[in-house]
Each structure stands twice: as C-alpha cells, then as structure tokens.
Amino acid sequence: MTGRDAGLLAPTWAGTPVAGETDDEAWLRAMVDVEAALARAQARLGVVPDGAAKAISAVSADQLDVVELAVASRGAANPVVAFVPALMKLVPADVAEYVHRGSTSQDILDSATMLVVQRVRALLLADLRRCADALASMAVAHRTTLIAGRTLTQHAVPTAFGLKAAGWLSLVLDSIERLESLVLPAELAGAAGTLAAYVEYGRLAGVDAGEPLIAPFAEELGLAEPVAAWHTLRTPILDVGNALQLVAGALGKIAIDVQVLSRTEIGEVAEPAAEGRGASSAMPQKRNPVLATMIVTAARQVPAQVSVLAASMVAEDERPGGAWHAEWQPLREALRLVGGATHTAAELLAGLEVFPERMAANLALSDGSIVSERLNVALAPVLGKAVAKKLLGEATREASASGKSLRDVLAGKIDTALPLDDLLDPAQYIGDAPALVDRILRRYRA
C-alpha cells in the first residue's frame, strides 16, 4: 500500500508553497524538464531532429504514474532507470530513440535536483524579503524602545528593542545573500564523467556534441554551466545544504527569542492572533507561540539532514554506490523544512505584537541594578575600581533582600556628589544602540 506524504508529522511545511515544489511530482516534473532540455540542446547541435525534441518537450509529467515509478525504482536503486522507458512510451515510436540520448541516470537526477532547488530558492527569497521588510519597520518603530538586555537568562544592561529587531534583520539579510550567491549547475557528464556516449552520438550525426553540449544544455535549463562532471565532486549539493542550514539557524534564533519574550511572566511580544492558533487540547486559556515553535522545530532538524549531505561527500570512484543515493531524502527534507520555516517566519514577523509597556515594567524589576555597570564606571574614579565593584555588589544584594531601592541603599553608603538619579536612568545607558540600528538599516536599504 502506498499513501500520500502530506506532512501530517511535519506541520512546519505542510500546506505551505514549498510542499508542492518538493513532493514526488515536483521531482518528476523536473526530470521531464531535464530530458526535454537535453533533447532541445542536442537538436541545437544537430544530434536530435527538431521534431523529436519538440515531441519530447510536449510530454507532461502528469502523464506518468509517480507511484508506479516509485515502486519500480527499487529495481535499480534510482528512479531514472524506470522513468526513461516510461517516458519513451509517451512519444511517437520514431521519437523514442532520441529520449535520454547518451545520458546517464545521475545526469538527469542531479540536474533535476538543481531545478528543484532553484524553484524552492525563489520561494525562500520571496519569504525572506517579507521577513526583512517587517523587521526593518520594527527596527525603525522601536529604535529607542527600552528593553532589558539579557545574558545567561538574566538582566544584563538596558538595550533597545529596535536593536534586537535589527539584529534579527541582519541574520535575514545574511540568509538572503547566502541563497543569492548559490551556484546551481547542471550535470552533464555521461556514465563515468567523460561524455563518451554524447561524443559518440555526435559522431554518428557528423557533429561535435560532447563538451560543446554542456553550455546549451545548461542554458536550456536556466542553470549554471558546470566546468566538468560533479558526480562524485559534491560541492554543489553541500553548498545548498550549508545555505539551508544558515537560513534555518537564523530563523531559529529569531523564533526562540520570540518564544522567550512571549512567556506569560515576560509578555513583551505576542504572535499574531488567528482563529484556533495556539490552542491547547486540554487548557482553554493557552495561546501557545506555535509559529515560533514550528520554526524552531525546523532549525533543530536541518543540521542533522545536512550532516548526511556532508557525509556523502565521501564518494568513491567516478560514480558511488550509496553516497549519491543517501542525499536525496535529506536534501528534500531540508528544503521542505526551510521552505516551511521561511513562510512561517514571514507570517510571524509581519504580525508580531510588541508591548513596550511590558518591556518597561520588566526593566524596572531590578530596581536600578540593571545599570550597575554604568555606576561602576562612574564610581571607579572616586572609590577605586575594586572597591566600587565590591560596594555595588553589596548594595544590589542589600536592595534585593530589603526591598529598598538601589538608589536609597547607595545614598546611605557613599558620600558623593554623583547624580545618582541620572546614573540610574536606563534610558541614559543604551550606548549607541540607535546608531547601530541605523547601520543595519543602511545595509537593508542597500
């Protein structure tokens, strides 16, 4: 029995645009596109008649039974061996001999994989640009909105929420740049990387159709022209995996910050509300941060998928037994997870609710001790650095234990004309946070 993989256990990508670009049918469409591109490229060189190339290009993947092909693929451990004769049956009898002419399974599937990656990349970039737009607006709106900076889970020094949003924006811009810089090459090499069969078919037609075929084939697919075979030189695949891992990690960082800031006892942000979103099966009061949860889920899984791609770099000879085959599912799952995460992140960030009043209330919880660093700088010239640090440690502990304000405790311990009220004002100790926001925004606008 064969069921449909709809993503029941993968809510991160289920129902998102990437699902339709990474399912079995998507890979089958890409394989059909590659065979058609090969025929057209060979027709340009005179190896295949123009009419045959047109007939092959007219075939639709919808004419093929993907379940039947999937089961048949067990016979050769790859789907192309079963796919080619099925494709040949869909063209006129006198055209069938021109299908897959001179090619090998890995040429077709590697090129199809790059087509799938290219199509998914367009989705990722569109969603990441939506994320960037939302974060840029957030950074501008909250350029000086005070929030507690936290290190090792504790209040550290004041910062601006706009700087946090701008930091998220920086990660998204890194992701966009990494995806845009990816080189996605076609694969055209023949059985052992020599183009021998392509050359031989060219000789029969009286033309040079080996190495000269590479450029038109890549052009027909809209992919980069490879320098040579990469059957066992898997840089393109690992480059894709590493880029996906970067995107997943970047979005995961943003999402886990949202999870923390939306805790009941913190309440500084909230996910956009929607009917039924964040509901619990047992607790009616819950509004779980489910968008962030789905993104974090992806970020935790993608590195494991990419590790298989890295391991598959160790591929023996000119064509490997197992290394290439091991790439297919992890790459697809990484594409799905990152595609779902980017789409979810765009929704999350476009509607993220920000509560400056809660940020201010939380900032006040430490009753001035959050600016101890500033007080230390101010008191060091008066008392000496070591004495000042010891005094502030004692004062903050006393304030916490007694319920007194840090200002009152300090006023009773030091005889100084220092302006304690100003020194204890968090708004006066966010350094150059607004200027740093502006630096990241300049990068975004560029």
UniProtKB/TrEMBL annotation:
Classify the source by domain of life.
Answer: Bacteria
UniProt keywords (A-Z) are: Isomerase, Lyase
**Name listed for the protein in its UniProt record:** 3-carboxy-cis,cis-muconate cycloisomerase
Q: Which SMART domains match?
A: ADSL_C
| Domain (Adenylosuccinate lyase C-terminal) ranges | 367-441
Annotated organism of origin:
Kutzneria buriramensis
Q: Which PANTHER family does UniProt cross-reference here?
A: ADENYLOSUCCINATE LYASE, ADENYLOSUCCINATE LYASE C-TERMINAL DOMAIN-CONTAINING PROTEIN
According to the UniProt entry, its GO molecular function terms are: isomerase activity; lyase activity
What the entry lists under InterPro entries is as follows: AdenyloSucc_lyase_C, Fumarase/histidase_N, Fumarate_lyase_fam, Fumarate_lyase_N, L-Aspartase-like
Q: What's this protein's family per the entry?
A: Belongs to the class-II fumarase/aspartase family.
Q: Which CDD domains match?
A: pCLME
Show the taxonomic lineage. Bacteria, Bacillati, Actinomycetota, Actinomycetes, Pseudonocardiales
Task: Extract the Pfam families matched here.
Answer: ADSL_C, Lyase_1
